[in-house]
Amino acid sequence: MDPSPIVEIAGLNHWFGKDAARKQALFDISLQLKRGSFTVLMGPSGSGKTTLLTLIGCLRAVQDGQLLLLGHELRGADNATLVRMRRQLGFIFQAHNLHESLTARQNVMVGAQVHPAVPDDLASRAAEHLLGLVGLAERVDYLPANLSGGQKQRVAVARALVGGPALLLADEPTAALDKDSAAEVIDLFRRLGAARGMTTLLVTHDNRILDRADRILTLEDGRIVADETRRGH
Hints:
Rossmann fold, 6 helices, 10 strands, 26% strand
């Protein structure tokens, strides 16, 4: 595995709004994420967790400071670079954002379509395999309207993983899941980290999963106030 960090951040600041309404959301964020690691990002609502996640995910422009993703500087990066970077990421959002007219299998296949070289038959098999891993083997051809909230979230998990991302960015992925389902999903992330070198950065308020993390970062008012490496990880 490449020993260089997958994410390197130094002196990152971010603001929202303009002029008198301008408000700083992140203050002097500096951190590195090792490849294959599982990091949890915690903090109260409004602390900047989702803002940091979307900056790393190339969904917001870097305004100030350094942010390297897979060795590429994102500050000032052109659109083609940002698109290329996003294709190496997996995203799980708080809202599952499924296409209501597509089956579970087809929704997961959408995640493979960012990789043009993946033929449909291979994408279909990969989608079915991942849906089985998240406990939905019997529901691959169900529409979202016929799935529970927790099942929809598991489809979203499978969709994020189908492209074999180098980095998984997950915003409250276990919020709609019961304790056992949450544990299964987190264990899947850890297995993929060990087997494929996938790095996970997960935003959560879910204390049930903290014992599975390699590292816990805590944000308050846009600042990292705690950085704990877990023993045994």
